[in-house]
Design a protein that fits this description.
The chain has 514 residues and is mainly β. Among the domains are: 164 residues, Jelly Rolls (Sandwich), CATH 2.60.120; 59 residues, no CATH class. Strand 31 and strand 32 form a beta hairpin.
């Protein structure tokens, strides 16, 4: 029987990582394995690296900013050194100076900044230590009798979360269903309790409070949102909780239990995103549908994996979701252990996901159009350079399996190539995966790419590629495989280059029906 050989071109999986769809029906723009890349609308980019930005002794547990009325923002880190927590100024790179605050016992803070006639103030609370108040010059420890600022009627060290809502500071009392609020435009004074216990039928305790704005700003339609450990959420509208005519309950909903204790909500345009055991949910959609409708979750395509993560690592500290608007990224931090984590990264334009490994982040911060993460003894600057603090970045791409014609027809794959572009040295290699094999495979890296660049006073003007320019390349390699379904599995390794992947070509030879 005659055999027909043809070259089939496969686009890069710009639709992103997909662990939801069955492999035989997965679309060609998706990938069951997609590590250490970022999905652009027209190509795949190997992610950028990171480098140490500021160094100290201890685990970085919270990075936060103070924004003055004039001048540049200041950046700080709370570092935990064997249970002794200190706050350092990391506004400039390098080794930190003397600690600004010492004697703390918990490094995971919630923060809120407010402005009054007396200046700009930043509150930090953690549910273990006395709250810290910073006015840009002095760091105050807030107790029931501290001067010049004090909070009465509640034990200040029990305050676990803080939010500014309608010119009023609200606090969560740990292990309770109560919140406390201060008078309008005040940073201290007599706190008033608001007991939410009668509203929540499933008990538990309040884990988080936030504001939810439907118009992407602050206005009359801002809602006050209260989350509990059992997955209930109460939504309020109004300004003065002591006045029934200006404060009302909009509704109580069930959206699933949250994961983490600190960073599991983030503003997203006019919406609010929440990490819970069902995925990454949009507040607006979660309140319009049953909890079980996971297709409304932004993480729908990666939901099976995220569900496994929330089951395995739900009690680990470090869950966080945040935006990197400069690069159109939404990043979810998954704390695998006390020292390791990986990230799920979505392109906010296309909705395509990928997974990042090799960034051991304990917390994150977007500041000054850059993203920083906390590690052990350092704060790192991410999406910076082409190496992971000097180590290689290793990317893996396994596009969706394809039958290349008829599913029942046996095929043989003999050659393949990756159409990619790079501006520096890169090693890469491919192998053929047959009939839905997703087990880890070692891939050799036989191709070494070192783009040539123009040499001054030697190269032909307007006819040479100058240093730093991205050059497209493709080289055929031998592949080996016989089966019904196939995919070209590619590994890319570099610490020098900006790399883009555009497509794959595979030589396939059809056999007979079996």
């Amino acid at each position: 029987m005659a055999r027909n050989s043809k070259i089939v071109s496969i686009p890069a999986p710009i639709g992103g990582w997909n662990v939801r769809d069955p492999l035989p029906s997965m679309g060609p723009l998706f990938a069951p394995v997609l590590d250490n890349v970022f999905c652009l609308p027209s190509e795949i980019q190997v992610r950028k690296g990171w480098s140490e930005y500021a160094t100290f002794t201890g685990n970085a547990e919270t990075i936060f900013n103070y924004n003055p009325r004039s001048g540049s923002a200041k950046m700080y880190v709370a570092a935990n050194n064997a249970g002794a927590v200190s706050i350092y100024d990391i506004s400039s790179p390098g080794a930190v100076g003397a600690a600004k605050v010492t004697g703390l016992t918990e490094g995971r803070f919630k923060t809120a900044q407010c402005s009054t006639s007396g200046g700009n103030f930043l509150y930090l609370v953690n549910g273990a230590d006395a709250p810290v108040l910073f006015d840009g010059t002095t760091w105050y420890s807030i107790t029931t009798s501290s001067t010049p600022y004090a909070i009465t009627n509640v034990t200040p060290s029990d305050l676990r979360d803080v939010v500014l809502h309608k010119r009023r500071l609200w606090f969560v009392e740990k292990n309770s269903l109560s919140c406390w609020y201060l008078p309008t435009d005040q940073i201290a004074g007599a706190a008033v309790e608001y007991d939410f216990a009668p509203l929540f039928k499933m008990g538990g305790y309040i884990t988080k409070i936030d504001t939810w704005s439907l118009d992407a700003g602050e206005g009359l339609d801002d809602y006050f949102v209260v989350f509990t450990s059992t997955g209930e959420v109460a939504v309020f509208k109004g300004t003065d909780p002591a006045n029934a005519s200006t404060w009302s309950l909009t509704g109580i909903f069930y959206i699933g239990s949250p994961v983490g204790t600190v960073g599991y909500t983030v503003k997203y345009g006019g919406d609010l995103l929440i990490i819970n055991r069902d995925g990454l949910a949009q507040m607006s959609k979660s309140l319009m549908s049953s909890r079980v409708n996971t297709q409304l979750q932004m993480t729908d395509k990666i939901q099976p994996q995220l569900t496994a993560d929330t089951s395995n690592y739900a009690n680990n500290e470090g869950w966080e979701v945040f935006l990197y608007p400069t690069e159109n990224m939404l990043i979810v931090n998954i704390p695998v252990s006390a020292t390791d984590s990986y990230q799920y990264v979505m392109n906010t334009i296309s909705g395509a996901w990928s997974r990042w490994t090799g960034i051991p982040a304990k917390c994150w911060k977007f500041s000054g159009e850059k993203i920083y993460f906390g590690g052990v003894d350092y704060v790192g600057l991410a999406w910076n350079g082409q190496s992971d603090n000097g180590a290689n970045i290793v990317a893996e791409i396994l596009p969706a399996y394809q039958s290349f014609g008829t599913q029942s027809m046996l095929k043989r794959w003999s050659m393949g190539r990756v159409i990619l572009a790079a501006n520096g040295a890169v090693n890469y290699g491919s192998r053929m995966e047959i009939d839905f094999n997703l087990s880890p495979n070692q891939i050799s890296l036989p191709i070494m790419l070192a783009p040539t660049s123009a040499t001054y006073d030697t190269s032909v003007y307007d006819g040479s590629t100058y240093g730093g320019a991205i050059q497209i390349t493709s080289k055929w390699v031998n592949l080996s495989g016989i089966g019904y379904w196939g995919s070209i599995h590619t590994k890319i390794e570099t610490k020098n280059a900006d790399i883009r992947v555009y497509s794959f070509d595979i030589n396939v030879e059809a056999g007979g029906n079996i």
